Amino acid sequence: MHRDTPGIALLIVVVLSAGCTTRGSSDGEAPASCAAPTVDVSRWETVDAGEFSFRLPPGLRESPVQGVDSKVGLFRTQDGAVELSYDWGWYSSDLSHDTATFSSYRACSGIIDDREALVITGQLRDPADGRAHVVAATWRNVVRGPMPVHLAIWSTARNPMSVDEMFALVHTVTFAAAVDAPFPEASTRSGPRVEDMLQSARDLTAFLRGEGDLARVALADTVVLYLAPEGGGDRTAVPREVLHDRDRWTVHTGRSDTSYRLAPPPQLSKLTARAGRHFNCLEYDLSSRYPTLAELPHVGVRLEPVNGAGCLQTWNATFVFAGDKTTPTLVAVVYDQWEW
Question: Which positions ≥6 away from 211 have C-beta within 8 Å?
Fold first, then answer.
């Protein structure tokens, strides 16, 4: 991930535009203003993360870290006095003010590499390893589309003298040209209409609840029923001719005594449906479970009691439709639950 700074000595001075606009502040004084300091970053190492790059002050070294549904990186000084991380993905933080997290908070908006960024400084109420001073930045919707991608960079330090360097660091971020590739508009993509998919998802849910039949639902020759990866990732292929039997909507696992019947409990009557989303009580991108299925048209459905108050009471399924047909044609179902 690291590559050395070129040997030609260039003086690079980081200065935020004078047009920076303060977005908000909290009780207490922020450790630094939103005006960027003048810092020479020409000798800093360049970190190339693919979609973006930035310069790294001396003393910070990469530490191993594994992302779940995003690209992440982590850098620390040897004594742990400074820590820096980045998160490139669908759920990257928007750095909104949270009084439970920050004892002081200041935010401003500015332009970094021709993109609007929100930059914050502040202090943490409960800092890890004494790193109370925060500098962070976020760029929203860097990659546009139905599942936009964001970047967040977060740094913490024990010593307020490190704040200027961290503030300068976020202003060295540059984005690769490839991230600007436009996402095709919905009108140029083939597949079923959103309204039709939502209706099919409601009809399928009613059928699984025992409240209707499949007369209005188009089914592929074989429909594959999936468990979410957290539940084992098992799948069962069911031929169309037996799908009129609700009992056949069952995922059989590799464990002889365990199977999951997709029919929801009768007391769950409040339905929420979202096109292009997956539910596990909360909303997610289906690509966080099955990236290949996420490329197809799909509708997430959540059932819960009318007065339900907990995720354990929800039933969650995503209905996946063929991408090459204008009539919603079911090809797969992904079943998920809050705890497995």
Answer: none
Alpha-carbon distance of 131 to 162, in angstroms, equals 11
Encode pLDDT of 33-71 as tens digits.
455 668 899 999 999 998 899 999 999 999 998 876 678
Nearest to 39 by CA among 59, 11, 18: 11
Q: Which of 14, 31, 39, 34 is nearest to 23 (CA)?
A: 34
pLDDT tens-digit profile of 100-142?
A: 899 999 888 878 888 888 899 999 999 988 999 999 999 998 8
CA 137 to chain centre: 16
Q: Which long-range contacts (CB under 8 A, 24 or more apart) does 128-132 make?
A: 128/156, 129/80, 129/83, 129/158, 130/158, 131/80, 131/81, 131/82, 131/83, 131/156, 131/157, 131/158, 132/156, 132/158
Query: Whole-prediction pTM value?
Result: 0.50
- CA distance linking residue 328 with residue 322, whole number of Å: 7
From CA 136, how far away is CA 152, in angstroms rounded? 7
CA distance 122 to 157: 11
Question: Tokens 């001719």, residue?
Answer: 241
**All residues at 6 or more sequence positions from 134 whose CB lies less than 8 Å from its CB, including other chains:** 102, 120, 121, 122, 123, 124, 154, 155, 156
Provide the token pair at 55.
């310069």
Which residue type is seen at 64? P
Q: How far, in Å, CA of 3 to CA of 278, rounded?
A: 38
